[in-house]
Specification:
With 501 residues, this protein is α/β, with parallel strands linked by helices. The protein has 18 helices and 24 strands.
Length: 501
């Protein structure tokens, strides 16, 4: 019912899509996998109408169509649930759900908010989300916002007569297991009315949910795998063009940290409503990982240390000096770098290019008598592009147009090049493919070897175990158990889960 034929797309210096053929049947769930930069996002944006192809055709029920914008795609039954989320945080849930389609509730120029609330409840019921539609969206958890995204797309059911095509771009990247299971059940239930294209770097989830899987590499479809024939290692090999390193988390490169040099001390620190009486030391070269479920307090600890939250009690010391003023600016001046979970919102600045993003935290090093030394900025950026293998046509490329993996490398380069001695990593591999994750793990080991203290909130428990020198398990904002993670004597998954829940 939906088909792409010989789709081609160029950007300056990049052949993003090359002769791509892709189709989907009614009620089918199709997986799409590939490394960051393989062309998945470009393909999705063409389907959704955000980009127009340079060549090839798009057909719905054998009729050729061409979308000039996402609105036209939506009017033809195509919706998208975005990885980085498209919701506006300071609007209510119901305003987000019907954003751009409020006219159905307008009479004599006045919006009937009660009618909108009733209609929003009907949409939320489709995704089994029992919340007040008048809730401000920023007050929801990430998982709840993801379901609101899906509910927003499902308003197409009432507006479109034909079959729907819904694009799911990394919808499970930071969801808990029970939230993932709920989402999968909702998707399966909706196949009577919609077909789905499911993008994820979690290959096991793609195999579980999809009827067929398209594998992309370097802008091409390199294979199409049926569900019954799919195998994780074979798909990963096709994605990256090589076998995955058996020492995936670089455990063989883990070296002891400097136990005599304390960079950070938390002494009975609390943040009301987030965490209580947390104490730890972070040493030079140590990878200290905070483990817990969503809402356990992990992210709050990182944001306190960086200065974005002010603790309500206890003492925080950086290299022996007590912190009395909490702000992000002060955090940077203390040589602290922060790689946030939502990199598109807090990590990079869309609209600024690669070298501008990379030097943003250290502008004083490139400014003389009020004038920026742009050649010096570009030289630093070029050095780190080569050092970290960042894929970009030039230092002038808008950072928002790069793949997630390359954006993450730019955020890391920003702090590395600025000389940060303490780096806070909040889900640094979220939404990254196998190859990009390996690159990040390599960088973590390199930073540790260079004496940088790393406070990590990992994307998975396996990642936490593999990367850490030390693990702290949190539950409901309180410390539960600490683990020493020397190679050969690391805790098991059960050891962690037992104390998490």
């Amino acid at each position: 019912m939906f088909e792409l034929k010989a789709i081609d797309k160029h950007f300056p210096g990049v052949h993003a899509l090359q002769d791509v053929d892709f189709h989907i049947h009614r009620g089918e769930i199709v997986g799409l996998v590939g490394e960051n930069g393989a062309g998945k996002s470009t393909l999705m944006k063409i389907i959704y109408g955000a980009y127009q192809p340079d060549g090839g055709t798009i057909e719905i029920d054998s009729k050729s169509v061409r979308f000039q914008n996402p609105r036209q795609a939506m009017d033809n039954g195509i919706g998208m649930v975005f990885q980085e989320q498209s919701l506006i945080p300071n609007l209510t849930v119901m305003e987000n759900i019907f954003l751009g389609y409020e006219n159905q509730f307008v009479k004599f120029g006045i919006i009937n908010w009660q009618a909108m609330s009733v209609a929003a409840k009907e949409q939320l019921a489709k995704v089994k989300l029992d919340i007040d539609p008048n809730t401000i969206t920023m007050e929801l958890s990430f998982g709840q916002r993801q379901l609101v995204e899906l509910a927003k797309v499902l308003t197409l059911e009432e507006r479109i007569e034909g079959h729907l095509v819904i694009l799911l771009d990394e919808p499970t990247s930071v969801l808990a297991e029970e939230e993932v299971n709920l989402l999968f059940q909702i998707v399966r239930d909706l196949t009577k009315r919609a077909s789905f294209i499911f993008i994820s770097h979690r290959i096991d989830e793609v195999l579980e949910l999809s009827d067929r899987i398209y594998v992309m590499k370097d802008g091409k479809i390199v294979d199409v795998v049926q569900h019954d024939d799919a195998e994780v290692n074979a798909i990963q090999h096709k994605m990256v063009g090589r076998d995955i390193d058996k020492e995936y988390y670089r455990e063989q490169k883990q070296k002891p940290y400097n136990s005599s040099e304390v960079l950070v001390t938390f002494d009975n620190v609390s943040l009301d409503g987030v965490y209580r009486n947390i104490s730890f030391d972070l040493h030079a070269g140590e990878v200290l990982t905070l483990v817990g479920t969503e809402g356990s307090g992990r992210e709050g600890i990182l944001r306190t240390l960086y200065g974005m939250e002010q603790c309500t009690s206890g003492s925080v010391k950086i290299k022996g000096e007590k912190v009395t003023h909490f702000s992000a600016t002060a955090g940077v001046s203390r040589s602290i770098g922060y790689v946030p979970r939502e990199r598109k919102v807090e990590g990079i600045v869309n609209g600024m290019n690669v070298y501008e993003n990379m030097t943003l935290s250290q502008l004083q090093n490139f400014r003389y008598m009020g004038v920026m030394n742009v050649p010096k900025e570009k030289s630093l950026a070029t050095t780190w592009i080569e050092r970290l293998g960042i894929k970009t046509p030039s230092v002038y490329k808008d950072c928002g147009d790069l793949s997630g993996g390359n954006q993450q490398k730019i955020v890391l380069a920003k702090w590395r090049s600025g000389g940060s001695e303490i780096i806070l990593l909040d889900h640094p591999t979220r939404g990254l493919d196998i190859g990009a994750k390996e690159d990040v793990y390599e960088m973590i080991r390199e930073m540790s070897d260079n004496g940088i203290g790393i406070l990590l909130v990992a994307d998975t428990l396996e990642e936490a175990i593999g990367l850490s020198h030390t693990i702290m398990v949190l539950k409901d904002g309180e410390f539960q158990k600490g683990f020493d993670c020397k190679p050969g004597s690391k805790p098991s998954l059960y050891d962690l889960v037992h104390h998490m829940i």
